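In the laboratory, one determines a bound structure by crystallizing the protein with its ligand and collecting diffraction data. In a computational setting the workflow is compressed into a single prediction: the sequence and the ligand go in, and a structural description comes out. We illustrate the idea with aspartic acid.
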Amino acid sequence: MEHVGQTVTLSGWVQRSRDMGGLTFLDLRDRYGLTQLSFNLSVNEKLCMEARKLGREFVIQATGLVKERSSKNAKMPTGDIEIEVTALKILNASQTPPFTIEENTDGGEELRMKFRYLDLRRETVRKKLELRHTLARYTRQYLDEQAFIEVETPVLIKSTPEGARDFIVPSRLNQGEFYALPQSPQTFKQLLMVSGFDRYYQIVKCFRDEDLRADRQPEFTQIDCEMSFVERDDVLNTFEGLTKYLFKKIKGIDLPDFPRMSYDEAMARYGIDKPDTRFAMEICQLNNLIAGTDFAVFKSVIDENGLIGGICAAGCAEYSRKQLDELTEWVKDSKRGMKGLVYVKWNKEGIKSSVDKFFSPEQLKSWIEAAGGKEGDLLLVLAGPLEKTQKALGELRLELAKQLGLRDTPGYNPLWVIDFPLVEYNAEEGRYYAMHHPFTSPNPEDLPLMDTDPAAIRANAYDLVINGVEIGGGSIRIHDRGVQQKMFDLLGFTREEAQEQFGFLMNAFEYGAPPHGGIAFGFDRLCAMFGGVESIRDFIAFPKNNAGRDVMIDAPGAVNPAQLKELGLKITE
Ligand code: ASP
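The predicted complex, in structure-token form:
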């Protein structure tokens, strides 16, 4: 309103036009929003006729007088004013866009991605990228204040195992050899610590050739950090600080101190290492209540030290046969592989259960009560080997929470998950895998177990989880050549393989490597969390689709035979 009476020049795109008798109105869109332009037929007929010919998405420049609008639009920041145009210049024409450039567009996902540059003109999408920028800016601000320095690390490197497949790049100058794109700058940031940089960060692209999901992209961005002369709590405090800072600056929210939970506790209570703690519905261990049973299925699970665990769904005693059958199929499918699902309903008529031939109503009631339930509730019980059953219960918990709307619980529940196992045993392959990555240090007190009981070693590793989403993870690293060598031994590397792949790091450890540790936050996911949506794609200017394709530029694509020849490559069918 403070511009009323001034003459201004605006440039932008024609969003929409309306003819109303002697008047024509155009909505002009630029990065900051919409402004109404008005043309009066009786004042300037030529100009008005020109305006009437403008199509959607034409790029124009308009000069005119700022006037107070007679019919104000409270939904627009510029809704109180309009520009009475006195001069108009068409800067470029436009074809009719393939979908409407408005908040609720009629363009489907594929079409919008093909014309992503038009999709990005939509305010909702632009706002998401602005949020991303703001998050990056505050992240840098915080880390700068904490004396971190940003250092770029190379993109053409050698494989760093972080549990995913590498993207590889053939070398023309060294035919038959390949670079790998970094799954993360892990080894480089550790080397920077050996160099004495002390506090490093980088907002950096990482590449992982994995199967894609809504919250995964083959190239994604991390806030990657490393610190020297620190212990676990120093890292946790620094990055809890960053998280609180971002929530305060961007959402105006003061987060309380983040609770810490061991991996074992997370698995026992929530069946997952990234629990959504906005709602309870915790796993209740029923083994003790059921001990001594003759019911063969449960008896064998107890005898084999398995788990009989229940989840209580509040207010679900009226779930239908069909709903229960669907959940049963769901727990039995190949992903979860459970043998079946036992239910106990407690409603006005009393207790009803799929196992009421084997247990008395009092017994069944005691199970529901143990799980924190009451009349009106439904208890779902799974039984089987401990870890498998915990995981299935964890998934069942989330599925029920989805059905009950609990995953939309407002608020943010951050927590640190700590004390992960260092390694995981793969029975099929008969070998151990690093749970985080091979540079993670064992908890100091568990070091002796490296020789005796590797599976029992706790890693000095930590994940930041908010509302069931893993926002970041890291660890205190090994900084001793001998321990690193032992770790590679444990993971089944021969001495030669370890030397060949990671000799540079182990050698560096022999030249005064300080104790160090760090963390990386998934930046796209963090953006999605602040934006309140699940998909990270909206927060990436030019994302890939579920098949890993960029449908706009049509990548990946074939290369011409001359290029292949130059690289010494041949495509075999
Ligand atoms: N490099 C690790 C990752 O990308 C993070 C870390 O350990 O700092 O998950």
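The first strand starts at residue 7 and ends at 20. Keep in mind that any predicted model is a hypothesis to be tested, not a measurement.
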